[in-house]
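Teaching note: in complex prediction, the entire set of molecules is handled at once rather than each chain in isolation. The prompt given to students was simply: 'Predict the structure of this complex.' The entities are:
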Amino acid sequence: MSEPGRATATTTHTEDPTMVTAGAEAVTEPSAHAVGRTKGLVAVVALLLLFAAPFVLNSYLLFVLNLTLVYAVATLGFNLLVGWSGQIGLAHAALFAIGAYGSAIAMEQGVPFLVTIPLVGLAAGGLAVLIGFPAIRLTGFFLAIATLALGMAIVELLKGARAVTGGGGGLNVEVFTLPGINGSASTYFVTLAVAAVAFFLVRRSLIGRFGRTLQAVRHLGQLSGSLGVSALRYRLIAFGLSGFIAAVAGSLYGQLQTFVFPAMFEMNLLVPMLVMVFVGGAGSHWGPLIGAAFAVVLIELFQDLGDLQAIAYGVVLMVAIAVLPGGLVSLFATFRDSRLVGRLLARRTASERSEVRA
Amino acid sequence: MTPMDTSTATPDSAAGHPVVELDGIRMSFGGNVVLDDVTLPVRPGFTGLIGPNGAGKTTCLNVISGYLRPDQGDVRLGGRSVVGGSAHQIARLGVSRTFQTPRLIPHLSATENVLTGAGRHYRGGHLSELFGLPAARRDERRLRGQARDLLETFGLGEHPGRAASRFPIGSQKIIEVARALLNEPRLLLLDEPAAGLGAEDVDRLVTGLTDWAADRDAAVLIIEHDLELITRLCPAVAVLHFGRIIQSGAPADVLRDPVVVEAYLGADFAAGD
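The expected output is the structure of the full assembly:
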């Protein structure tokens, strides 16, 4: 009766009740309907603003925004695995690479870009399930090491398969353009559309039964069997889904960078990905977006550190987990709760006042 | 097989085909025999399983619920052998259980925690949930309603949205019982449900359980040290001592049996002196 993630960093925030409240609160509170409508409205307005970005931002800022969205999608998948199912699987950067390479290679063979997105998703999802078969029986440190090794092997394969991937030298990516729209704006619009759909679908399934089941697996481990849940099956599903999403994000990344090479997908990507999950808030709904934005700024800052980059990210990761175990999203929750408390206090004093008057 | 024939000692109210039958179960851990030829039929209604610490009571539950595979013997659920089935398969056959220390998802609400027990009663799959199909929404609404009703039954309906970790430990144990009941089990296994509960919580537990069981054919097997609770709830009780069933029958008779008194209560008295 082991408990996955118990011995690892995830433990730090499992006990924190302020962490993932979004799933529970949206449906159990009496005013859930009104709250849901407000949230939906906010989402629509945000989406419209984001669609306007290419018309107002300069090319550099558009690139940064685009990169943030790509990382946000990648982290959405990583968070599903690490934050929700509680498995520290470290093949994510490699699966992301599969998406970037797979899409570019398929396009060379004449497959339209938009078709390559689900294709690389399915391929990487399948590969992630294969990685998952031995991995789901491991927990904590051993799971991390095993998946890290498999991920590194995948990147090595990309280097080795020179004929297909161009080896260490890299591969040019054919850029997809929407009719009548320039390259970078096209890439941005596709990224935004994919990100919106991905966040919508993932959030909806995590807020309900699927998300509850994943959390039961994470918090009860093998004991979730008593709930009729096969822990191994759901761990495997989490692997497959995270791999699918990683590759989808990877295909978008290739479009954005227009050139991919294996060194892009090593530690200098994997560690920032962990930063995105934990700084955003592991097991949250919007953490991936916030974590990605944070990491993109960080990546800009650490650009010139060379080999020290991974160490710098590592330090950030440790500090983030130690100082803010629930991630940045937990700050919002704290803020909201305190405001709620404030409002309740205000209401009580109001009713007390009316009693006094009566 | 048992030292005393259980069928003659079982009162009429507990008659009927056993929901689950342990038949000659032997279980050892590294040469240490924990269960030795345990035969125990559990009939509809409440059955108590008592005995000193280390007698093998929890091991019995783990064997029934599929966490342990016995070295010998058979477990029959509704006449069908379930030995070798995994825990989640057995749970899906209608076997629910609770744990000595409550195992809830700390940051999820009481209702959400109870809902995690509903697994096999969702008619649609995860894809219908992903795409927000009406069937999935109906499932969710129906089961959420049942989860709230169960919390009401146990007197915990006041704060359905409060995070599980913010409830006192006694209430957490009751939430766990409600979660087990949402599976609509034909066999409910409770591992020391009253340990750590205040008198008020024990009353909630007893009322909730009897309400729930009143219009059902389900069997409830309770491990408990609180003999008053056992006497209140269970028309049948079995005593486990060093991995063997040494006595079973109506609590009044069993608890007066000199063998039981020596094995179980005697030990307590000796410790108390």
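Point out the following to students. Chain B touches chain A through 43 residues (CB under 8 Å). Confidence is low (pLDDT under 50) at residues 1-14 of chain B.
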